């Protein structure tokens, strides 16, 4: 019974009750998700109800810049990082700043890639991994990530002092959701927490996986460091640099090495300073390691956020659900990265360097212009992934020559034969879609001949637009050649077996570079037969020529392209001889690496090599034909581009327009000397010619 | 100043204040999003604050089945629907039931597609659009969607009576988010609302777009019906069928026709019964029509949910942000649909028909088996999109012949020549990725020769796995041939110009089918030269043969494949002559459409045609060589598959295993008669042979 005569107090009590109720409701809502977080961080995912373990946190303020740090070294990790970045960009709605700690190889690849990718609202900073090595190289480590994994430990001291928060990711991560939701979890940190981590989804740190398994110390199952939310400011304040070093040194007194690189050390520090860690919901790092317990997490989650391929077997890991996860990964592996060049809705951002001028130039094009496609293709900036596969350039030699060529998917079959004919370095540009790049990768891996060659550099130029950007491709391959000389070839030619050695000897004997500015001509022939026995020497070549089994290149359709080489003289020649430039000359030549670039305005087919030879002549290169050099063109199905060219008067009209513009440029640069080339440029183009 | 001596009242007042404050906070949160929904539905998107117009509704119960209805007719709309479905499947986390109202063409395409796609947790029901036509054909309509657009009006009476709620989508919709979020908006309907719609994002219904523009009546800007949330139960209760008919009939007294099909009628009904409509946030139907005002919506939304390409220009619509939107569309247009064959996390669902047995068979394979790739490839069920492009089969004729062949991207160049050589119907299977299918589409559109042909059916079989499933492809093309006879050819052959007419005449003269079970042999030749003038008659062919410019097919590498055709006899023959089966015979033949299928176990290269000819012989087909028929193989770059075959003893070993199993099957089916084929099957395979 309530005491009577105290209505006010009663009212107040009722109000208090109501208040408590409402307060409860309110707090229930605010903390619903956090409950799982605040629970025992070491309880298994099942205990903490995984379908609740991804509560909807408030999204971060719209347009807030999010920072992401990744350590990446070498060719293969660079490919992995690109897939990770594609998955991140696909779902993101915020501007991003990527902080990439890279070795020289990864830096060259990723710098070129991001520069040519031109994704709006993405900034990239590079940090030199080699400089960080001394800070971690004293730690003995058995993990497959090597020294680079350990570098995550030194990020607080490496990233800019003003940077307070960063998400750190391993390269073998795939996003299946918006990274901003992960960033929003920073808001759940208490005032002292500094490291957000997901529990390790295996029993590794329990130390019971096998007899005498002695893992590093950890709280319960420990944490996985594939995804880390770092409060850099707090770590710096807490003396992180001393903290982890002290712990690591102490543990290494009794343990021989780290088994899981940085993760062992992070866990040991956390065991000592449990207040530092903020446990994160399990879906933010679903770990598909060999002995994974991740199923406890994902089997009840409706929503998967981040997949972590943390087995050395990667996609080939045994897991009954691996196909599901693999599909997420493959989605981004093969995703057309060009489609990620999209701005953010409602977030104004600085356009990437060069993008603004490009947009303006594109906007000025007239869509009704019959040559619109040409103009557009010329302006296209292709995404470029240099040294797509592992590449070990040979030691620098003064007269070495790199074979330079370009191709697309339909010429992959040439690569093995080319490797057999040219034992020296090659720089090849491949024009591929993202999906084709993966087919190419599998093709090389399946070929013992190709897999054995470390001196062939493959540069992927991603497809965009309807016309084959032949000269842009040649320029990419040329720019990546590392030897002092280059042999500018085409993919459907096989050089004489002796050519590589012979060229180096000739360059030395002729004293090129220092004394003479010369282009060495490699005479070109062709066979019309698929079944063809390659002549081992000039003598055999001449015999085949006399027997009608070989022809000089384009003998039937366009003899003018190679006539100035003077095949009759070549038959008898014992020493290199000079020839003069004549209209339409387009020999295959060996020149110094710093030779003029190809004119990128020539896209599709026609005039692309002729213009380059004009340029060499204008710059007063001397043309010297080598008496023992030869290369032979093999037959192939005509490309789609060339079929189109042959059937279209518009195409030929546009080519004439390009030639006119090319000559205007020549006149501007060489004045009256360019008059020499005018008749050649005004000649109408023969559709039978081809490339 | 506070009155003294009333501490209790003071405390109560303070509590009240706190209570109000908390209550306010709580309700502010609960209703934040709903405010935009409850506001004036006709206010422009800007007025209703578009960045708020997509509040986070509670997600629908996990694993709830969502229903989607789409009206689809014809080849082109079928392609559109597939892109829409891909975008929906990519983001969905719920089981889906698709209700497809289709004409016969779309049904054939989509039924085959979904049957072979085998996406878990997707059910598809078909409804016959032709049966619905009488219900809407009385309505004069000027919209490009024709009669089919109007069929959305009759969905409440067409879909199952027990179905209460459905999302109705136009075919030109792309999802950029999870459809469950849209479904969740049903929860916002009041007790009487039955139709959820987004405001029309143009001034069309304001009637001020041009002089004398007289639109149908609508509330303000009206609503767009590209995305509809339908409470079917309520509409049925409200007498929807009478309702819309009455309104339409009345309006058609003064208006000549609907301009925007069903949308005009929906708007007229809503104007009369505004209580029916539930306005939806603008981001759920961002309309890129010609005079769109959508920018008001998307420019401030951080999150785009659904894009609607509701201009007749579709992707070519002029809009300064169209590139952004197009990237969403292209993402799914080119997305590998195989990757969507993934189950839902945590939602148990009936596996698609056949999927369980397939999974079991795949699970039983031994990954260590050197022929694992073969076994896996044989079991692969490829997604099939029949009649990918518009196709108009010629009227049925008793002796008509369809040319049947298969190809991949690297043989597209053959299509034009093939069309010139074969004026009759063709059924071609193309083995492509989703992205390549789009390249193929552009290739056909750009070719006047191909675009002019309506009697060539292109069936896309989507790539999956490392080996070319040559016989599965042949079977797809064969199954889709509509004439009584088929010419089983290969893509790199060009038939004699007269062959189509000659075959039909021969079939008639020989009385095939009714009287005789015969395979008509078309003798095969080859040229090794690209530049080759096709012989207009047998006389010229023989002259080229004698001159060494032509050979009988595989004369150098594998004469046995065609030797039984007896070329010497063919030279002189004036009438068809019978030949006997001999080991390794693999002629190109004309047979009735109901001939035995190819054995799908032969994947990659080798024995695929030989086994089919064995099957014909076992079924006692008589082989008749036609004296005036011939076909000529053109040279081409060797395919990647064949290069692999030639270099791999494992590959050849696996092929021998396939042959052994093939023979076991033959024995099972034909008993002792199969003994005849045993020696042929035990012969080792020659790597030089090829296909």
From TrEMBL, chains A, B:
Q: Which GO terms describe its cellular component?
A: Golgi membrane
State if Lyase is listed as a keyword: no
Task: List the GO molecular function terms.
Answer: glucuronosyltransferase activity; manganese ion binding; UDP-xylosyltransferase activity
Name a Pfam family for this protein: Glyco_transf_49
Under the heading InterPro entries, the entry gives:
Glyco_trans_8 (IPR002495), Nucleotide-diphossugar_trans (IPR029044), Xyl/GlcA_transferase (IPR051292)
Name a biological process GO annotation: protein O-linked glycosylation via mannose
Q: Where in the cell is it found?
A: Golgi apparatus membrane
Q: Pathway, per UniProt?
A: Protein modification; protein glycosylation
Keyword Cell inner membrane found: no
UniProt keyword terms in alphabetical order: Glycoprotein, Glycosyltransferase, Golgi apparatus, Manganese, Membrane, Metal-binding, Multifunctional enzyme, Signal, Signal-anchor, Transferase, Transmembrane, Transmembrane helix
Signal sequence interval, chain numbering:
1-36
Reactions catalysed, semicolon-separated, are: 3-O-[beta-D-GlcA-(1->3)-beta-D-Xyl-(1->4)-Rib-ol-P-Rib-ol-P-3-beta-D-GalNAc-(1->3)-beta-D-GlcNAc-(1->4)-(O-6-P-alpha-D-Man)]-Thr-[protein] + UDP-alpha-D-xylose = 3-O-[alpha-D-Xyl-(1->3)-beta-D-GlcA-(1->4)-beta-D-Xyl-(1->4)-Rib-ol-P-Rib-ol-P-3-beta-D-GalNAc-(1->3)-beta-D-GlcNAc-(1->4)-(O-6-P-alpha-D-Man)]-Thr-[protein] + UDP + H(+); 3-O-{beta-D-GlcA-(1->[3)-alpha-D-Xyl-(1->3)-beta-D-GlcA-(1->](n)-4)-beta-D-Xyl-(1->4)-Rib-ol-P-Rib-ol-P-3-beta-D-GalNAc-(1->3)-beta-D-GlcNAc-(1->4)-O-6-P-alpha-D-Man}-L-Thr-[protein] + UDP-alpha-D-xylose = 3-O-{(1->[3)-alpha-D-Xyl-(1->3)-beta-D-GlcA-(1->](n+1)-4)-beta-D-Xyl-(1->4)-Rib-ol-P-Rib-ol-P-3-beta-D-GalNAc-(1->3)-beta-D-GlcNAc-(1->4)-O-6-P-alpha-D-Man}-L-Thr-[protein] + UDP + H(+); 3-O-{(1->[3)-alpha-D-Xyl-(1->3)-beta-D-GlcA-(1->](n)-4)-beta-D-Xyl-(1->4)-Rib-ol-P-Rib-ol-P-3-beta-D-GalNAc-(1->3)-beta-D-GlcNAc-(1->4)-O-6-P-alpha-D-Man}-L-Thr-[protein] + UDP-alpha-D-glucuronate = 3-O-{beta-D-GlcA-(1->[3)-alpha-D-Xyl-(1->3)-beta-D-GlcA-(1->](n)-4)-beta-D-Xyl-(1->4)-Rib-ol-P-Rib-ol-P-3-beta-D-GalNAc-(1->3)-beta-D-GlcNAc-(1->4)-O-6-P-alpha-D-Man}-L-Thr-[protein] + UDP + H(+)
* Role summary: Bifunctional glycosyltransferase with both alpha-1,3-xylosyltransferase and beta-1,3-glucuronyltransferase activities involved in the maturation of alpha-dystroglycan (DAG1) by glycosylation leading to DAG1 binding to laminin G-like domain-containing extracellular proteins with high affinity and in a phosphorylated-O-mannosyl trisaccharide dependent manner. Elongates the glucuronyl-beta-1,4-xylose-beta disaccharide primer structure by adding repeating units [-3-Xylose-alpha-1,3-GlcA-beta-1-] to produce a heteropolysaccharide. Supports the maturation of DAG1 more effectively than LARGE1.
Which cofactors does this protein require?
Answer: Mn(2+)
What Gene3D superfamilies does the record point to?
Answer: Spore Coat Polysaccharide Biosynthesis Protein SpsA, Chain A (3.90.550.10)
Homology family: In the N-terminal section; belongs to the glycosyltransferase 8 family.
Bilayer topology annotation: Single-pass type II membrane protein
Organism equals Sapajus apella (Brown-capped capuchin)
- Write the protein's name: LARGE xylosyl- and glucuronyltransferase 2 isoform X3
């Amino acid at each position: 019974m309530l005491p009577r005569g105290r209505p006010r107090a009663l009212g107040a009590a009722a109000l208090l009750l109501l208040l408590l109720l409402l307060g409860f409701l309110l707090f229930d809502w605010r903390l619903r998700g956090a409950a799982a977080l605040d629970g025992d961080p070491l309880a298994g995912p099942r205990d903490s109800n995984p379908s609740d373990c991804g509560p909807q946190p408030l999204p971060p303020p719209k347009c807030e810049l999010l920072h992401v740090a990744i350590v990446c070294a070498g060719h293969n990790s660079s490919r992995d990082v690109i897939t990770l970045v594609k998955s991140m960009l696909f779902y993101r709605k915020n501007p991003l700043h990527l902080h990439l700690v890279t070795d020289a190889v990864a830096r060259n690849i990723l710098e070129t890639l991001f520069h040519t990718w031109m994704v709006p609202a993405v900034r990239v900073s590079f940090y030199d991994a080699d400089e960080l090595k001394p800070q971690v190289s004293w730690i003995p480590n058995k993990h497959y990530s090597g020294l680079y994994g350990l570098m995550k430990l030194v990020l607080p001291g490496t990233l800019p002092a003003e940077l307070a928060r960063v998400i750190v990711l391993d390269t073998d991560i795939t996003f299946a959701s918006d990274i901003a939701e992960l960033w929003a979890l920073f808001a759940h940190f208490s005032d002292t927490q500094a490291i957000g981590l997901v529990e390790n989804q295996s029993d590794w740190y329990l130390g019971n996986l096998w007899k005498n398994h002695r893992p590093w110390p950890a709280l319960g199952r420990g944490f996985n460091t594939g995804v880390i939310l770092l409060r850099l400011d707090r770590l710096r304040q807490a003396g992180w640099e001393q903290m982890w070093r002290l712990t690591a040194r102490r543990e290494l007194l009794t343990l021989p090495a780290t088994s899981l690189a940085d993760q062992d050390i992070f866990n040991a520090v956390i065991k000592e300073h449990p207040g530092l860690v903020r446990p994160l919901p399990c879906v933010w790092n679903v770990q598909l390691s060999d002995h994974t317990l991740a199923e406890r997490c994902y089997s009840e989650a409706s929503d998967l956020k981040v997949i972590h391929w943390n087995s050395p077997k990667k996609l080939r890991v045994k897991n009954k659900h691996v196909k599901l996860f693999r599909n997420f990964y493959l989605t981004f592996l093969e995703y057309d990265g060009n489609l990620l060049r999209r701005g953010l809705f409602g977030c104004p951002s600085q356009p990437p360097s060069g993008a603004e001028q490009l947009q303006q130039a594109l906007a000025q094009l007239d869509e009704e212009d019959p040559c619109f496609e040409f103009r557009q293709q010329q302006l296209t900036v292709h995404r470029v992934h240099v040294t797509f596969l592992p590449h070990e350039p040979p030691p620098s030699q003064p007269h070495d020559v790199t074979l330079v060529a370009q191709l697309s998917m339909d010429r992959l079959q040439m690569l093995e034969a080319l490797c057999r004919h040219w034992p020296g370095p090659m720089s090849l540009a491949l024009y591929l879609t993202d999906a084709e790049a993966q087919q190419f990768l599998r093709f090389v891996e399946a070929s013992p001949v190709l897999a054995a060659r470390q001196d062939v550099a493959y540069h992927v130029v991603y497809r965009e637009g309807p016309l084959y950007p032949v000269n842009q491709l040649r320029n990419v391959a040329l720019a990546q050649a590392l030897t002092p000389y280059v042999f500018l070839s085409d993919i459907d030619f096989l050089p004489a077996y002796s050519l590589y050695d012979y060229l180096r000897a000739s360059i030395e004997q002729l004293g090129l570079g220092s004394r003479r500015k010369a282009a060495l001509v490699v005479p070109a022939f062709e066979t019309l037969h698929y079944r063809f026995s390659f002549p081992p020497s000039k003598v055999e070549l001449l015999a085949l020529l006399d027997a009608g089994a070989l022809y000089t290149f384009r003998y039937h359709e366009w003899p003018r392209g190679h006539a100035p080489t003077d095949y009759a003289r070549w038959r008898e020649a014992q020493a290199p001889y000079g020839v003069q430039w004549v209209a339409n000359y387009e020999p295959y030549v060996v020149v110094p690496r710093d030779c003029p670039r190809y004119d990128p305005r020539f896209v599709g087919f026609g005039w692309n090599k002729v213009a380059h030879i004009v340029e060499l002549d204008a710059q007063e290169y001397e043309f010297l034909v080598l008496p023992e050099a030869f290369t032979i063109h093999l037959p192939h199905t005509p490309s789609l581009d060339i079929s189109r060219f042959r059937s279209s008067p518009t195409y030929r009209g546009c080519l004439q327009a390009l030639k006119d513009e090319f000559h205007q440029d020549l006149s501007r640069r060489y004045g009256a000397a360019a008059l020499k080339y005018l008749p050649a440029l005004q000649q109408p183009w023969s559709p039978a010619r081809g490339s």
